[in-house]
Design brief:
Layout lengths: L6 H19 L9 H5 L22 H16 L4 H13 L7 H8 L7 H9 L12 H8 L3 H12 L6 H18 L8 H5 L4 H10 L16 H14 L3 H9 L5 H16 L6 H4 L4 E2 L9 E2 L1 H11 L9
Antiparallel strand pairs: 1-2
Helix pairs in contact: 1-13, 1-14, 1-16, 3-4, 3-7, 7-8, 7-9, 8-9, 9-14, 12-13, 12-14, 13-14
Bound molecules: magnesium ion.
Magnesium ion binds next to helix 3 and helix 14.
Protein name: ADP-ribosylglycohydrolase family protein
Organism: Streptomyces durmitorensis
Family: Belongs to the ADP-ribosylglycohydrolase family.
Length: 322
């Protein structure tokens, strides 16, 4: 038996695990269930970080890019500065990333100020419960974990609301923050779902209780997994149904649909649970995160940069510097 990962291993595992899931799933986005396992039938064989669909092998997508922009803002301002995060998102969107969610793009380019753009989009479109706030949440979840359960869930809601006007997206992101906080502490987040659900807004509690229940399966989803409920539900299902990092993200990608995001969310939770060392080196070696909209043109993060970023986000508050 291997030793349990320590907190630093879990924090690095969360961020690297999310980025690896994103890059592993990207070539399979909008594919069918079973596409991944048809091509890569068993774990441990190699070649899975294959690229395709416009993505280089190991290239992370908008999920991880936006997460890094959130991290840069939190560290530069030593806390939550919502207009600054929104501005970074806008500069990223204007720098023509390879992929950007439809709703996110509209909110970031509709010309409205940071505190109105998502709200107005929701009023006009009435549907705004995509998984686009959940997919980028790992860095903020790392940063706010040390502030405790209610603080991290509230931070999740505030950052989600920058692009998503529907409270369903806020609550799903808040649940993810809390699940990651518990995992970093070495707890089993699945054992603590009742306590986590108790802090979800009452209007949204029942729907999340269903999607996170032990008997729920991704086949039970009533929406495409680009929506926040089945995305989070699928990640929790993948965590519950497997016992290694590799198997968890394989299961996530193999669901088809919004594979990069479902695997990014799964990879964060599984990376935190099993630790950085559990993530296959053949997946972390080609991993890279181009960062459109960065103050440093051409900036690309690799494994060592992501590990360093995770440790800075997870550092105790007194030691935090920009
Ligand atoms: Mg993506």
């Amino acid at each position: 038996m291997s030793l349990l990962p320590d907190r630093a291993q879990r924090a690095a595992g969360a961020l690297v695990g999310s980025a690896v899931g994103d890059a592993l799933g990207a070539p399979f986005e909008f594919g069918l269930a079973g596409d991944f396992s048809a091509r890569f039938p068993g774990p441990g064989r190699g070649g899975e970080m294959c690229g395709g669909g416009g993505w280089d092998a190991g290239e992370a997508t908008d999920d991880t890019q936006m997460a890094v922009h959130v991290a840069d803002s939190l560290l530069a301002h030593a806390g939550l500065d919502l207009p600054d995060i929104f501005g970074r998102f806008q500069r990223w969107a204007a720098a023509e990333p390879k992929d950007i969610g439809l709703q996110t793009e509209d909110v970031l380019t509709n010309g409205l100020p940071w505190d109105l753009a998502a709200q107005v989009h929701f009023q006009v479109n009435t549907r705004a419960a995509g998984n686009g706030s959940l997919m980028r949440a790992t860095t903020a979840a790392l940063y706010f974990a040390l502030d405790g359960r209610e603080a991290t869930m509230d931070a999740a809601r505030s950052i989600a609301a920058l692009t998503h006007g529907d409270r369903a997206a806020w609550e799903g992101t808040a649940i993810f923050h809390e699940l990651l906080r518990l995992t970093l502490e070495g707890a089993d987040p699945l054992d603590r779902l009742p306590q986590t659900l108790a802090l979800v807004h009452p209007d949204h509690r029942d729907r999340y209780a269903l999607a996170l229940a032990p008997y729920w399966h991704p086949d039970d989803a009533t929406e495409f997994n680009g929506a926040v409920w089945p995305c989070l539900g699928s990640a929790v299902w993948a965590l519950r149904a497997t016992s290694t990092y590799e198997d968890a993200v394989r299961a996530a990608v193999d669901l088809g649909g919004d594979t990069d995001t479902v695997a990014a969310v799964t990879g964060a939770l599984a990376g935190a649970r099993y630790g950085l060392a559990a993530i296959p080196a053949r997946w972390t070696a080609p991993l890279h995160v181009p960062l459109p909209g960065s103050a440093r043109p051409g900036r690309t993060l690799r494994l060592a940069d992501l590990v360093d970023l995770a440790h800075r986000l997870d550092a105790p508050r007194t030691a935090r510097t920009g």
